[in-house]
Design a protein that fits this description.
Blueprint (H helix, E strand, L loop, with lengths): L14 H11 L2 E3 L2 E3 L18 H4 L1 H16 L16 H9 L33 H17 L3 H13 L6 H29 L5 H13 L1 H11 L5 H13 L3 H13 L7 H11 L5 H10 L3 H11 L9 H10 L5 H15 L16 H8 L1 H11 L6 H12 L6 E2 L4 E5 L25 E4 L5 E19 L10 E9 L10 E4 L14 E20 L5 E11 L1
Antiparallel strand pairs: 1-2, 3-10, 4-6, 5-10, 6-9, 6-10, 7-8, 7-9
Helix pairs in contact: 5-6, 5-7, 6-7, 7-8, 7-9, 9-10, 10-12, 11-12, 12-14, 13-14, 14-16, 15-16, 16-19, 18-19
């Protein structure tokens, strides 16, 4: 048997590589081809030995064949020096190469260029079937509604605009649906704009806050629920400005319950003073009964004090306030000063100055309540005495209630100043009526003005007070006692523009016209009117001389 010659290894690139390969495996080059060493396939002499098995006889032959296969390409790639590129053709690659046609030296025939296919005529576009306007309208309406539910207002507005362009005669139901969607979009847009204004209320810049309040005021109906919602915010500044905005809406029936609700929430305790202030300024009825109920039911002393403080400023304390708060007055709790002021306020509002007669109480008193009323004068005296020379809040509040119930006479209110006047003489200024001098005939100790000028003077009490009377000393010129006022009207209010209707009127007797006379003053009684500003206006004088005026004025109250 003869071993077939192996094809030349085309990937052995140079003689160096070939020499290395031949030395390793015993390959020799013959006629430019690589040949393996011949292997003798002579039958061994032992083949005729019948004592040996057949497979033993063929064992050397099988080993030789395996060696030829092994050395023909299954051995690992030889090590080649750097710079020499080698490639050992595997038996599979050799088989593939052997099947490739040999070059005949004849140039290959040029392939004919591919024939161009005839151009296909353009397809005629398929015309969409026309869509019914009703289908378009329903689709756009559904799209608009979905955008509204997702609060995508801009997309909803675009869909609504397209909806209006559909040429369709709407049914009554579709017209109603379209109006509802349009209204919903408008409301959502307004709420978004107002929410931005609500957020601006938290600004520390007053100009930004006022701009936001003006925007909210223009749409009060939509702003009211948003303001109510903002009161639950954790930002005290936002809550404060929201309370102020509620008052600016001038809707006490709607806003007062909301303000009282702030006092009910302990988490808003930082804003309780703000709520009390707005309840006082709003000047509307509706807070009295809820505040009294809160003061009676709360277990938190700070909350009771806040409710009582607001009740003392409310315009509508319930008639039962005095009787309901007597147990607090007779006790020694921390809410005592606030309870005294709240009762004093209720007494003045409902004319309960004579408690012992039961006038103005509007409730039938029980034996226990009668006992508490009769114990009140002694209790007030004890509280006032406990204050000493520097009375505390409780002592001052007890004195106010004692004056309100006419147990002690009213005293002049301190800190009063002249705010405005009709006219004055340089030698007799208007501020002279508050200098405390009433028994002198010196021109500088009295207020004088030309008789043809307006005879009025406006006083500022510094804060809201309860006025029970005005004490007046007439013009005390030497030998000119008839030059003073005769008829006087007293106006009291919280702001100067409220001074329209007189709270009281009276007649002032002429002065004696000499130094150190007996007290010639007169007190014009006022029925416990409350306000910060007091205006006196001369309605008539005793004579028609060139000038007139007053010597001294005291505002009595608490």
């Amino acid at each position: 048997m003869q071993i077939p010659e192996l094809p030349r290894d085309d990937m052995i690139k140079n003689e160096v590589a070939g020499d290395l390969w031949s030395r390793r495996v015993g390959v020799r080059m013959v006629g430019g081809e690589t040949r393996l060493p011949a292997v003798s396939l002579r039958m061994p002499h032992t083949l005729s030995n019948p004592a040996r098995p057949t497979w033993v006889t063929w064992l050397p032959f099988m080993a030789a064949v395996c060696a030829v296969v092994f050395w023909s390409g299954c051995w690992k790639r030889p090590t080649v020096p750097d710079g020499i590129t080698t490639h050992v053709t595997t038996p599979v690659e050799a088989l593939v190469e052997s099947k490739q046609p040999e070059s005949t030296g004849v140039p290959p025939k040029e392939e004919a260029p591919p024939q161009e296919k005839p151009a296909t005529p353009p397809e005629t576009p398929v015309q969409d079937e026309p869509v019914e306007p009703a289908t378009v309208w329903n689709s756009l309406f559904k799209e608009t509604h979905e955008h509204l539910q997702k609060d995508a207002l801009e997309k909803a507005a675009e869909s609504l605009a397209k909806l209006k362009e559909v040429q369709l005669e709407l049914t009554a139901e579709q017209t109603e649906q379209l109006a509802a969607v349009r209204s919903d979009l408008d409301n959502r847009t307004r709420r978004r704009r107002l929410r931005a204004a609500i957020g601006q209320l938290a600004s520390k810049e007053r100009e930004d806050v006022e701009a936001a309040q003006n925007q909210l005021y223009e749409d009060a109906d939509a702003a009211l629920p948003l303001l109510r919602e903002s009161l639950h915010d954790k930002n005290p500044l936002l809550v404060k400005n929201s309370l102020e905005m509620l008052r600016r809406l001038r809707r006490p029936d709607d806003t007062l319950p909301i303000m009282v609700g702030v006092l009910r929430q302990t988490k808003l305790q930082k804003n309780w003073p703000d709520a009390i202030r707005q309840i006082e300024l709003i000047g509307g009825a509706g807070a009295g009964e809820p505040l009294l109920n809160l003061a009676e039911s709360s277990e938190l002393p700070e909350q009771r004090i806040a409710a009582l403080t607001a009740l003392a400023a409310a315009v509508d304390p319930p008639p039962r306030t005095t009787v309901a708060l007597l147990p607090m007055i007779l006790g020694d709790g921390p809410e005592l000063p606030a309870a005294l002021l709240a009762v004093s306020h209720a007494v003045c509002i409902h004319g309960q100055h004579d408690l012992w007669s039961g006038r103005g109480l509007a409730v039938e008193l029980s034996p226990e309540q009668l006992r508490q009323i009769y114990a009140l004068p002694e209790r007030l005296s004890a509280i006032m005495a406990s204050g000493g020379e520097s009375p505390g809040d409780a002592a001052r509040a007890a004195k106010v209630l004692a004056v309100a119930t006419r147990q002690i006479p009213a005293e002049p209110i301190l800190g009063v100043r002249v705010l405005a006047f009709g006219a004055e003489m340089k030698t007799s200024p208007a501020v002279a009526v508050l200098d405390g001098v009433w028994n002198s005939t010196a021109p500088g100790a009295m207020w004088r003005y030309p008789i043809d000028k307006e005879g009025s003077i406006l006083f500022d009490l510094g804060s809201k007070r309860t006025v029970v009377g005005v004490r007046v000393w007439n013009l005390n010129e030497s030998n000119g006692g008839q030059h003073g006022w005769k008829d006087v009207a007293v106006y009291i209010g919280s702001i100067p523009t409220e001074l329209v209707t007189p709270a009281a009127k009276g007649v002032i007797p002429p002065a004696l016209g000499k130094n150190n006379p007996v007290d010639y003053s007169v007190t014009v009684p006022v029925n416990f009117a409350q306000g910060r500003y007091v205006r006196l206006r001369a309605e008539n004088t005793w004579s028609q001389s060139s000038h007139t005026g007053l010597t001294e004025v005291q505002i009595l109250g608490f």
